[in-house]
Amino acid sequence: MANLNDLYTAILTGKLPVAVAITKEAIEENVDPQYVINEYMVKAMEEIGSRFEAGRAFVPELLMAARAMKGSLELLKPQLAGNHSRPIAKIIIGTVKGDLHDIGKNLVASMFEGCGFEVINLGTDVSAKKFVDAVCEYHADILCMSALLTTTMNYMREVIAALNESGVREKVKVMIGGAPTTPEFARQIGADGYSDNANSAVILAKNLLAS
User: Fold this and answer.
1) 67 & 113 share domain
2) Cα–Cα distances in Å, from 197 out to 95, 108, 138, 176, 194?
3) Are residues 116 and 163 in the same domain?
4) What are phi and psi of 147, to 5 degrees?
5) Helix (H, G, I), strand (E, B) or coil at 101
6) Closest listed residue to residue 145, CA positions, set 179, 174, 165, 182
7) Residues 206 and 103 in one domain
8) Is residue 98 within 8 Å of 128, Cβ to Cβ?
């Protein structure tokens, strides 16, 4: 029987082959993939992210953990997305200009991919023009912006203004997230929604698409 605690540990310590092997066992045993992700994989990534922020883990460990999680998610994708080859929707995601944080943003991006979305990850320090250009180029359904600093979160307002000026605001839903952001801030800047974690981001995205 698949030991999901060992999966948590494998992702936390960046052991890709172990994570993949346990994930395969869980699939063979028909364990609910969403349960595996929510209760073990996401929590492992949250823990390594917390250690990184606290200076108890470093970039190589973070990257190894992300690689292990992505390996497991690749196996779970068919279970989550069913047999449909077309993505649920296209999502542009990035950390706003002036901000280089990407742990949470990358976790959200991985969750979206695992749940059947096509994700275009623009990385960090993304300008309003780059966000707008990507929305137009990829015909995105949702734009997700992240900020981890109070000094950069207000740039989200500029991105939404740029979307309006370009005439594409009505064509794309806008989600925001990151430590200093709040539901109230999302309303103030004209975003469509706010999420504080990867799980709720997926739920919010699906709700926005259905609205």
Assistant:
1) no
2) 15, 7, 25, 11, 9
3) yes
4) -150, 135
5) coil
6) 174
7) yes
8) no
Give the separation between CA 172 and CA 28, rounded to whole angstroms.
38
Closest to 153 in 3D by CA, of 198, 101, 204: 101
Are β-strands 118-121 and 142-146 bridged in parallel, bridged antiparallel, or unpaired? unpaired
Which three-class secondary structure state does DSSP give residue 127?
Answer: coil
Instruction: Pick the last residue of a domain from 82, 109, 136.
Output: 82
Q: Pick out the chain residues at pLDDT < 50.
A: 83-84
The confidence score (pLDDT) of residue 111 equals 78
Q: Is 159 helix (H, G, I), strand (E, B) or coil?
A: helix
Give the containing element (helix H, strand E) for 89.
Answer: none
Amino acid at 59: V
- Among residues 172, 168, 196, the alpha carbon closest in space to that of 184 is found at 196
> Is 139 exposed, middle or buried (CB count within 10 Å of its CB: 0-12, 13-18, 19+)?
exposed
Write out the residue range of the structural domain in which residue 149 sits. 90-210
Q: How would you classify residue 115: left for phi > 0, otherwise alpha for psi between -120 and 50, otherwise beta?
A: alpha
Q: What is the pLDDT of residue 75?
A: 92
